[in-house]
From TrEMBL:
Stretches assigned to the ArnR1-like winged helix-turn-helix domain: 1-70
InterPro entries according to UniProt: ArnR1-like_HTH (IPR038723), WH-like_DNA-bd_sf (IPR036388), WH_DNA-bd_sf (IPR036390)
Gene3D superfamilies registered for this protein in UniProt: Winged helix-like DNA-binding domain superfamily/Winged helix DNA-binding domain
Native organism: marine sediment metagenome
Short name of one Pfam family: HTH_45
The protein, known as: ArnR1-like winged helix-turn-helix domain-containing protein
Length: 73
């Protein structure tokens, strides 16, 4: 789920919560909790109701992708 949200924000540049909810197939309550955790961790930023991935978020996304690749092998 974290990977999905980071990917949506990463690809979208700046996205609204609704786009994340539908893109990750989650409800608003769960999405809000995860987004709060990602903001507090410095992985994404919220600016004018839009979410944007940070450098730290880009780094962790790449690491998650590496791990996912290992499991696919």
């Amino acid at each position: 789920v974290i990977r999905d949200i980071l990917e949506i924000v990463r690809k979208g540049g700046e996205v609204k919560k609704t786009e994340i909810v539908y893109g990750a197939n989650l409800n608003f309550e769960r999405t809000s909790k995860i987004l709060k955790w990602l903001i507090e961790g410095g992985f994404i930023e919220l600016n004018a109701d839009k979410y944007k991935i940070t450098e730290k978020g880009e780094d962790i996304f790449r690491e998650i992708e590496k791990v996912a690749t290992l499991f696919k092998s």
